[in-house]
Amino acid sequence: MSFNTFGHLFRVTTWGESHGPALGATVDGCPPGVAVSEAMLQHWLDRRRPGQNKNMTQRNEPDAVRILSGVFEGRTTGTPIQLMIENTDQRSRDYGDIADTFRPGHADITYHQKYGLRDYRGGGRSSARETAARVAAGGVARAVLEDLVPGIAVKGYMVRMGAMALDRARFDWDAIEGNDFWLPDAQAAPEWEKYLQAQRKDRNSVGAVVEVVARGVPAGLGAPVYAKLDTALAAAMMSINAVKGVEIGEGMAAAELTGTGNADEIFMGEDGPEYGSNHAGGILGGISTGQEIVVRFAVKPTSSILSPRRSIRRDGSAMEVVTKGRHDPCVGIRAVPVGEAMMACVLLDQLLLQRAQTGAAGPVGRIG
Amino acid sequence: MSFNTFGHLFRVTTWGESHGPALGATVDGCPPGVAVSEAMLQHWLDRRRPGQNKNMTQRNEPDAVRILSGVFEGRTTGTPIQLMIENTDQRSRDYGDIADTFRPGHADITYHQKYGLRDYRGGGRSSARETAARVAAGGVARAVLEDLVPGIAVKGYMVRMGAMALDRARFDWDAIEGNDFWLPDAQAAPEWEKYLQAQRKDRNSVGAVVEVVARGVPAGLGAPVYAKLDTALAAAMMSINAVKGVEIGEGMAAAELTGTGNADEIFMGEDGPEYGSNHAGGILGGISTGQEIVVRFAVKPTSSILSPRRSIRRDGSAMEVVTKGRHDPCVGIRAVPVGEAMMACVLLDQLLLQRAQTGAAGPVGRIG
Amino acid sequence: MSFNTFGHLFRVTTWGESHGPALGATVDGCPPGVAVSEAMLQHWLDRRRPGQNKNMTQRNEPDAVRILSGVFEGRTTGTPIQLMIENTDQRSRDYGDIADTFRPGHADITYHQKYGLRDYRGGGRSSARETAARVAAGGVARAVLEDLVPGIAVKGYMVRMGAMALDRARFDWDAIEGNDFWLPDAQAAPEWEKYLQAQRKDRNSVGAVVEVVARGVPAGLGAPVYAKLDTALAAAMMSINAVKGVEIGEGMAAAELTGTGNADEIFMGEDGPEYGSNHAGGILGGISTGQEIVVRFAVKPTSSILSPRRSIRRDGSAMEVVTKGRHDPCVGIRAVPVGEAMMACVLLDQLLLQRAQTGAAGPVGRIG
Amino acid sequence: MSFNTFGHLFRVTTWGESHGPALGATVDGCPPGVAVSEAMLQHWLDRRRPGQNKNMTQRNEPDAVRILSGVFEGRTTGTPIQLMIENTDQRSRDYGDIADTFRPGHADITYHQKYGLRDYRGGGRSSARETAARVAAGGVARAVLEDLVPGIAVKGYMVRMGAMALDRARFDWDAIEGNDFWLPDAQAAPEWEKYLQAQRKDRNSVGAVVEVVARGVPAGLGAPVYAKLDTALAAAMMSINAVKGVEIGEGMAAAELTGTGNADEIFMGEDGPEYGSNHAGGILGGISTGQEIVVRFAVKPTSSILSPRRSIRRDGSAMEVVTKGRHDPCVGIRAVPVGEAMMACVLLDQLLLQRAQTGAAGPVGRIG
């Protein structure tokens, strides 16, 4: 069954296909009384919008979001918020050649196998356009989160793109917004661009690793075992198109550490516990410690490439696929604001859960 | 809120603490008429049982599972199956010294912060003992899965333990059961043992990467977007104690690939589509392709070590923690049967979802 | 938290307020490959549309439904179906007098208390207009249901309206569509109309009891205990605006019966078990028997009346409310197609659940 | 699929059959730090225990509840609470004659049809014994509820038993605990007993209506539309064995009222809004008003009677059923504490939801 909802209390259901009339998100369970406007959401959508620069697809859509319900006189009412983005740049070309073809690395073949039919125009439901709805919903989550936890901040950036890797020694939080790659290293950006353009000219694409960090998250969010905050974040990030790996803190590298090396020692600071390191990514036993929450996810290289790949048609006959059209050479770039949106949704959801169970939006147990 | 349930239709809720009278799993939504017995479940529990060899903790519990409901005359009835494992080896020592102490890398501090109190005996709910309940539930899932999909096979093994890494060129499926590490390389096992014993003597521990593979999974399981099969697997694995990273197929390494390198080309075989490679880990667009499903997860090094680590007490005073007691030097070893159990539960759940939506437990759309 | 979703596998989330730009339903989990069109859904919407005759409010809206996603080339794709109905007849009058007033019998006061603010225009989320979204979603459910279970039929009708009660001896299934009251007694309809117009002239309103029957439902739908089919139906009907009571089969009157009088004796018919009576309303032990499913629900009299009622303003001051505007004298009439829609949604959801757990959309165990 | 869970945040999953080793409830999402003991739960279980007097079945089980997890040093820890009740009085008689027989009014035939097999001993999962688990879980809910809302009170009583009806003019809240029928009229109790014994001697049984009232419930619980508090209560009560009708406030009788008669006029009292009447049963627009919450449900007459009823065997052959054994002549009596338990669970769940969405366990919007 296709469940298109995520979240327990702050629940987002996305809907819509690439070439249908519209797509959007139904946001249920939003706390009342928070200022939310189309302009606020548009800010975040503009960040992920394609056609902004030559490192993205040239499909040009304004992605204008409309709020159809749940907001009255500029404030959330506590009832469902419907966010709609109309599809305006659907080129009315003939998709007949794609209808019976399965592009390697795409959902074409599995959608066909699962459902027996599919909306093949532009990838239908599997299009990266679906993530626009997430970003809009994430904008609502951010507004509420900032209302409930003043000073909370969520930021994503790229740490790898194919062969290019961020030099952590040069990490600059303030550089992130200043380049096309959300790269926390202003100086390296031109080199990344050169690399990506070379891939594009080579009719190829590359993968990426995106890191999303949340600062100012109170201790106490998450829960033991299946409802670990790690679990919620892993599910959220892995649910993004083309994502194939998720890490919290040290992530996969934790396997290479020893117990002494991995331990985040605890000290008493002025405002509560402090930690000597953050191997755990801000989550212990599934629950936030108050440190930075650190999540990374890998986005596979864009499957739509101009280089021919062997495949089959629905009738089983062999063919070669060359995916024409306007595609990102690294879809991971656009995944940065999507990762931020998912982080915001998860944190708000967990905050509401914590508030439900304990009556507080932060830690209950005192230390010191 | 602490949700201790996983699965949509085959739903498992685990309960219980390390040193309470018992722990177990409530399994709801199990198809009726399938042969399930305590002996069948015990088989899987015995695989994860501590005290089996010197590479594991010496805590010795039989971990005998009892079926309290939902099975009648040897067959599932479709009603909830209650699985209970009594805690028999709870040493009645004084835990007073732990009660007000927060061990680095443990859930002690966050449980305290979240709830204001905690069952500190043996880690309480955060104990790895919780995974015994998962393995028991996974035994039920396996029985049903094998009933519905003859020939399906789920197997886990270690691919890394600290500095030791599996040599893929020597991969031997049949060697997995023959050594203490579920290592698919019989020859390498003694070296792994030597390495681990050195860590233990050094009062240290190491992390691990476990890989779980499912063969014979029909195409069509999973769903687009948030309900991607990748998502369900990532959530399931990340929910295991101490897991901090999850990968499907290429996983994090997909970021370093190009589109041409990552494409799994498609060919027509005798029984349907075949693929030239499996970078995607058997999942495209969130839906199984019929290839092997390949998942990996990283387990951090055991936090309970005999080397002193700095921490604080509940009153904020500084102290040094040395965790005595019986602990696995690499908790990742015992995570192998747990990962298998989670894979089995997820696949069965997805099979039921596919059956609900399409009436078939496999692919609906024909190819060729 | 406001959960606006119903259903487990066929999941409907309604959204929208009376005077916002639009309202609608997000339908997730719909089986693929079923023919669904706007015209098919419009048919059911037209049945509940106000302004059709003098027994309804004179608000005149076309209630035209648009399918924004999830249907491709006339067939469902298995992805979320977004149904949108634009609000076109929102009179731009000043609602200032209502903003701070709590109308007796309305949600005004409790919405204010719960959320601290409310969209007061036309009742906002509490408007009966929300049921249009349910009817649209119900249209999808019917299409799928008829595809899966040929011959299944769902029909609603009125059995009471204030002092008027259906004479069961004159029950005529074929008369239902032929009058303004969905009354299965063509001869009595004029008398009901006379009665209702008298109430309207008296600046009053009346309540109603609606009965919804499903024929051709296979045995085996529902489940024991909490997931009784009775439970799903009770929740579905009680969730409709203004409904305050729900009955299955004998309903409340079962309390006055004896065990001998209430027993539905069982006989062997040609096609399976047959029953001597249907006190149970087609549901035994929470599971359908194959008989007619019979549900009734009571709709309270319309709270918006022209007769003055005492109330208070937000500042606590006393006042008298006279609700002007265009209101149904018996909102129960319009609840008939809504009840049908809920029945269709519940039955489809249960059918999918049965298919998930047993692989069959009907009974598994043989008799005879 | 058999979902045996109820509640959104305070989640109760019951498990177990009449003649298995044990039955119980898994309670997830319970707030931490609340005093809960086996003795507290036993108090409520003792109220529903059979064998207490001649108006109940003579099956004699202590129904001793054990807490297996989730409570530490007398307080809830926020982790799952496992409640187990062992079945001690399972008479080891031969059930062979029931195995292939379908008793009219019982779940025998539908369980067989749905699942293809059933645990026929004592009704298996459909036994009224399942309600013991609910009462135990309800005891936890009460403890938390009283901790969060001092002064809250939940009480159930009978208002009808077959031909006997409570005279509302003689209603006495303090009489409820003093007789076998939870009858709020001490004087009438002997007459009810005489009536019931006559039914028993006549080898018959009767139905009942139970009313459950909650006092001291804050305004603001519940939500619009599908999540109406009415919906949650209807689902909870309808999920009890043998219940076939549920009413809130006026219930079905609302259909016979006019708008003027049904309106609960609002006045300003010293502590907030007050109402001139309570036709709505304390719920407006799906949300609690602060008045008494009033729910009623009908329990059908016990199906197990000594009078012969016609039925069939599994092979389709005709037979007559006479249900021997120890059965309540009016199972509605024992449903009183069950209804209370369900009310407590629903109210706590709603309180947690309100706390999640608004941060308050009561009303947010000020009046006056």
State the CATH class of chain A: Alpha Beta
Instruction: Provide the succession of SSEs of chain A.
Output: EEEHEEEEHHHEEHEHEHEEEEEEEH
- The total of beta strands of chain A comes to 18
Shape-level CATH architecture of chain A: 4-Layer Sandwich
> Radius of gyration of chain A, rounded?
21 Å
Strand residue percentage of chain A: 15-25%
Main sheet: strand order of chain A: 1-2-3-7-4
The shape of chain A is globular
Q: How far apart lie the N and C ends of chain A?
A: 49 Å
The CATH homologous superfamily name of chain A equals Chorismate synthase AroC
The biggest sheet of chain A, with number of strands, parallel, antiparallel or mixed sense and barrel status, is: 5 strands, antiparallel
Largest interface: C-D, 124 and 125 residues
- Average of pLDDT of chain A: 92
Do you know the CATH topology of chain A? Chorismate synthase, AroC fold
Range of helix content of chain A:
25-40%
| Low-pLDDT ranges of chain A | none
Number of helices of chain A: 8
- Structural category of chain A is alpha+beta
- What number of domains of chain A? 1
Oligomer description: homotetramer
Family (chains A, B, C, D): Belongs to the chorismate synthase family.
Binding site for NADP(+) (chains A, B, C, D): 48, 54
GO cellular component, one term (chains A, B, C, D): cytosol
Pathway (chains A, B, C, D): Metabolic intermediate biosynthesis; chorismate biosynthesis; chorismate from D-erythrose 4-phosphate and phosphoenolpyruvate: step 7/7
